[in-house]
Fold these 4 entries.
Entry 1:
Amino acid sequence: MNDKKLLMLFVRNPELGKVKTRLAASVGPEEALAIYMHLLQHTKQVTQDLAVDKLVYYSNEVKQQDMWPNEKYQKQVQPSGDLGDKMEAAFAHAFENGYASVVIIGSDCHQLTQEIIERAFKALETHEVVIGPALDGGYYLLGMNKLYTELFRNKRWSTEHIFPATIHDIEKLHLSHVVLPELSDVDYIEDLGEDFWGEEKT
């Protein structure tokens, strides 16, 4: 039985003025970059000890010597196209490389935990799709055990329609699925909870 598992992380290269632009409108580009770096560190913290293969997909260039240790994370540049094109190509590549369970996350969810990601992979042992809804109508996690291209096509990305549209496709295809707890992405200043910085910043 093939039990190869892959976690794909879609991240932006942390460059001033190019990350968290909606947030930057409220706090400025420097603070937005600091917040994004904090989100990246959180994402590394909750993924680095997972007992699965891990692949970081960068937005525009691979950094070999950075916060993502090469011994724990494979590294590639995201495929071209819109977000749906990128994710579809990434999933297709993973299944072509022999993975049986593939999960994708972004780097915007400060509430994400290692346990939730482990639950996602566990769900794929008995279900075809797993999805983690975000409060803004998108999703913070998507996993599947074969490529379902319909989930990536004809979507209005970065809108509140993404999660309901994806669930509609999942049900239309009669796929068994698990819905994870609803979490909040960090896109606006209102999304920064009181515990966002933890002990790092007061």
Entry 2:
Amino acid sequence: MDSAHQTGTDPRKARIEEMRRAEHARQRRNRVVVIAASAVAAAGLVAGGAVLLNTRSGDDKSTSASAGATRSSGMGGVKSGTDGAKNGGRTGSGHFVTGADGVRTWKGTLTRNHVAGPVKYPMEPPVGGDHNPVWQNCDGEVYTEPVRNENAVHALEHGAVWVTYNGKASEADVAALAAKVRRTPYTLMSPVADQKDPIMMSAWAHQRTVTGAGDPNVDKFFAAFVQGAQTPEPGAACTGGLGQ
């Protein structure tokens, strides 16, 4: 697995680099806010504990009844969370429409909830829907083993293009595509054994088949959909997620 290295003055690359800088600055600000909030929360817990002890000393009967109500409410919350994890996620509703350029576009809704469990997608590879809270790293990463759909879909939400292939793809095409992915930020590549065509490319709500690494539609798809207009969260990180 390698990360991409940017060179040149290509406008798209410059825009992606600017988005990266903005994302890193946002992450630094968030860390400061989290640290400050944690300190305030800790102080609140200490004060709350002292109040609770005083209340118990003053009125044992009232505290016992209140604790019973709290336990009942807490158990309901835990059950709801557990059910959500077991049930997994969903994708929404819709269907693919193929354009004159060969790109299949999902017409309908694609849900975007974070879920802990597996998601049953109506297409393979998936192009959107509920997904894992952790994205698959997509800064020009080439994975030689399959990745989880739920993590890859989160990368698509961040504006990545996902290149996939099965056992029918030639070794030469796989090697050439891997080299291109390594040079391109906001992309990732992995094998998907049960996809219908040897080589496919996916972005959020979009997908197409290409005939090989030399197919001009490879460059066209990258140009249109790497951080393209379809991106639900433009500029979001493609690093700091799940690697392999």
Entry 3:
Amino acid sequence: MTSFFQDIEPLHYDPNSTGLAYRHYNPDEMFMGKRMEDHLRFAVAYWHSFAWPGGDPFGGQTFDRPWFGDTMDKARLKADVAFEMFDLLGVPYFCWHDADIRPEGDSFAESRRNFEDIIDYLTGKMESSKTKLLWGTANMFSHRRFMSGAATNPDPDVFAWSAATVKLCMDATHKMGGQNYVLWGGREGYETLLNTDLKRERQQAGRFLQMAVEYKHKIGFEGAILVEPKPQEPSKHQYDYDVATVYGFLKEFGLEGEVQMNIEQGHAILAGHSFEHELALAASLGIFGSIDMNRNDYQSGWDTDQFPNNVPEVALAYYEVLKAGGFTKGGTNFDAKLRRQSLDPVDLIAGHAGAMDVCARGFKAAAAMLEDGTLEAMRAERYAGWDTPAAAAMLDGDLASAAARVDAEAIDPQPRSGRQEILENIVNRFV
């Protein structure tokens, strides 16, 4: 045991507590025949919780953690503290980038040795903990070698380095029993068209993703391959802008049956969408996989990665998750970090506990809305005309036959209310 979280007791469900406890998250409470824990599948993000130093675009490090440093001893201490927090929170999963868990070496070979050693250490930690791996991924954006992208880089040596990195991370994810592997293109985009070959870079990105899928099958990894859409941070434009863009990309390279989406709330907002829009679209296209749960400060124009605290927003998101059939291999990863003034160990616990409660409260509202059925009944009523034989025949016919219905049936359509305010009032009854 370390001393970092000393005097903090494991959290439990206690709806009347005024201290560190769960007021809404009861992991054993049943919904639709499944435990709440199994519906929500919470995961802690290793990078924001244990690797982030507290900086922002205008200021540097504010956190002083005993595990900060580029040695294997520090990396092991970080892992010890991480699993202590997982146990205090009772979370079933965590997620990592390679750079979060191991120190950077002077060569790829040294970094690989560091990584493989710490993977063995983490695997040992998992044997005595309930917390397992939701997904692994590679950090191919922080180091200066990736300043022009990873798979899309104009330098083929960077492509090769990126391939070696992803292979290493996929092997480790497979070894640890991870449920998914995520490809997150932090710098797969451009800053100016003046030096960018769009066609070439798309082809490189597409081939790289094909290679990752091929390797998944080669090693027998049964988890899902996930792509995380991200619009324009830090690049001016990125090739994985939003769910619709990624779906077109997957279709172009024949990957729509192989790859699913890991959708982040903050990225959805930066792309000009709502979280529920991206979730609903992914589900309708058959590529919904997992989520990163966070929020942005709506007065800022960048990805602030704050813990969720808006129950109505969360409820609408989980409504779409439940409509999609819920998570299978995916889950709710808190891709969220403390504010840089929140310095104490207890802040890490409180940030996650509060977020888990907000998600639980929103989830309960979403489940109640779906079980109530009013929203879906009103949706079905709105489109009921398309269930008639005449409408079905029109879609199977041609333009002329559809047009002929107007005279033959004396059609004179009148507008009908979309009832938006009524629908919004129904939602508000639950949240």
Entry 4:
Amino acid sequence: MSHLLANYPNITSLKHISAEILNGGRTRLFGCREIWRSNAFYNEKGKALVQCCSGTSTSTSTSTSTSISPSSSEQVGLNRGINNGEQLKLENLVCDYGWRVRRLVEKGDEMRKVAQVQAEAFHVPVALFNDLFFEFFQAEVLSGLLYKLRNSPPNRYACLVAEPAIDDSDLEQEVVGVVDVTVLRDDNVLQHLPSEAEEYLYISGIAVSESFRRRKVATALLKACEVLSLVWGFEYLALRAYEEDWGARKLYSNAGYQIVSKDSPLFSTWIGRKRRVLMIKRTNMDK
């Protein structure tokens, strides 16, 4: 454990890590980087961009959802936001199932909440010093979120958050679910799309707080992703799930995603990674 703490000579407490990151520090959290990389999607320069698989966060969301179609609140967003470059901030993309989904507010408290939800979903427990490793992992997730927000155009990346649909100014809204949406052009995905498709929306990092799972939060998040694809003008959405994660696969299938390919079993076994499936959905641009 000393090799981890040796990297942070100016930090007297683990609670200071997230503060340093939010203040623009260059803290590198080597202790948990390999765990995060194991589920990360990389661009051509090797930079970690987004989570590739939903992991345990979606495996608990097994309730059946209805087919996705824009509600009245969503249609308002579509009518206002189809023009390219318009940035959705606090407007609700979806208000359904008792949850509303909007874009992340780039403030310290909310970003910490988002990092906590994703860290709790994706952290792999360890036998010793689990709490310490979790705090490092959560700080690494926060660092990755800041990187994406600072280096992505507003119409190329969005972090969406779900919260209770309660209109009460006296109650503090609680982030109960998170999902990342990124515009990508990976050839491994494009080969399954029509030749005219040059880019698509990639959904990743979907996570729901443990006490709010099995309550349609993940369904609302997926619905918001589709609305955002219409707002940004993209016809196809893609995501990956672990082949053995039947709960996640059922959730995505109910939302209209279809399996188009699987990781090579030789490749997955060789590097010791769980086999994944690629799932794609086509939106109706005429809605």
